[in-house]
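Colleagues,

For the teaching module next term, I've prepared a clean inverse folding example: a structure given as tokens, and then the sequence designed for it. I'd like students to try predicting residues themselves before seeing the answer, so please don't circulate the second half yet.
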């Protein structure tokens, strides 16, 4: 590990060790997993991982996060939020990301008070400063700490530290709310969420580790990395049949390939960026 990353890791340890007792918002992604592991190393049993289920995230990810936290050896608390019951979220405007994060952070801070934990920590990193402005606002209002960000850690550095610690998710692709597949202005509901979720799961089982299915009314727009488009075409009949069975009339493949935040490309350049996946 190079000296710069080592210094940041030491700084992270110093920040965490001063906190004494922490509650960590744990998703099972690479960032929150590194945070959980380092918190355990610094604070031992004074760490709890809170895994939050939501209709806007896959149940498989929820279960995997619980198993991962337990394998690290920390206490795990399971809870849920009902995002589809919040009209500010289902309206699906760029501001909806703020309301989603606010709901999450408010629940976590209340839980921390009830369970007797001094700080709530999340896994935001330096890369998130530009891409998560609504989340940053909600986090600051709730008093949640992003200690990976405070230690000035970037994604490649988080992966490097995670690999050194033999964390199994060190190279896991980023994930995000399934709402990110639906264009702004299109109301979110469980049916649409299930459509894109089932389509992505099906294509994933064909061997594509990184796939997004974007919702455009009766059109499903598939994104995979550009290098995988030719391989995807080999399964065109199976994919077309499955996605049509989910309620779409047409299936397209985005020739530009997968990129984060493709739904944000239609926003004005001076708009606050939102969560991207």
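(Answer key — instructors only)
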């Amino acid at each position: 590990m190079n000296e710069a990353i080592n210094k940041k890791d030491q700084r992270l340890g110093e920040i965490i060790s001063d906190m004494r007792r922490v509650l960590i918002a744990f998703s099972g992604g690479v960032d929150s997993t590194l945070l959980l592991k380092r918190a355990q190393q610094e604070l031992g049993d004074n760490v709890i991982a809170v895994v939050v289920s939501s209709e806007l995230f896959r149940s498989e990810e929820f279960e995997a996060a619980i198993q991962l936290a337990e394998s690290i050896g920390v206490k795990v608390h399971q809870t849920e939020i009902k995002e589809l019951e919040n009209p500010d979220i289902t309206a699906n405007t760029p501001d909806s990301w703020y309301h989603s994060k606010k709901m999450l952070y408010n629940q976590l801070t209340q839980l921390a008070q009830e369970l007797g934990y001094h700080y709530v920590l999340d896994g935001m990193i330096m890369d998130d400063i530009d891409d998560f402005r609504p989340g940053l606002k909600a986090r600051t209002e709730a008093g949640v700490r992003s200690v990976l960000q405070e230690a000035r850690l970037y994604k490649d550095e988080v992966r490097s530290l995670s690999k050194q610690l033999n964390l199994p998710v060190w190279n896991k692709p980023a994930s995000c709310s399934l709402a990110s597949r639906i264009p702004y202005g299109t109301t979110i509901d469980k049916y649409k969420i299930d459509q894109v979720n089932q389509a992505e799961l099906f294509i994933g089982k064909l061997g594509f580790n990184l796939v997004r299915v974007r919702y455009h009314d009766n059109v499903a727009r598939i994104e995979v990395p550009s290098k995988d488009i030719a391989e995807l075409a080999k399964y065109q009949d199976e994919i077309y049949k499955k996605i049509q069975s989910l309620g779409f009339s047409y299936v397209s493949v985005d020739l530009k390939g997968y990129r984060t935040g493709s739904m944000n490309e239609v926003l004005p350049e001076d708009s606050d960026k939102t969560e991207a996946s």
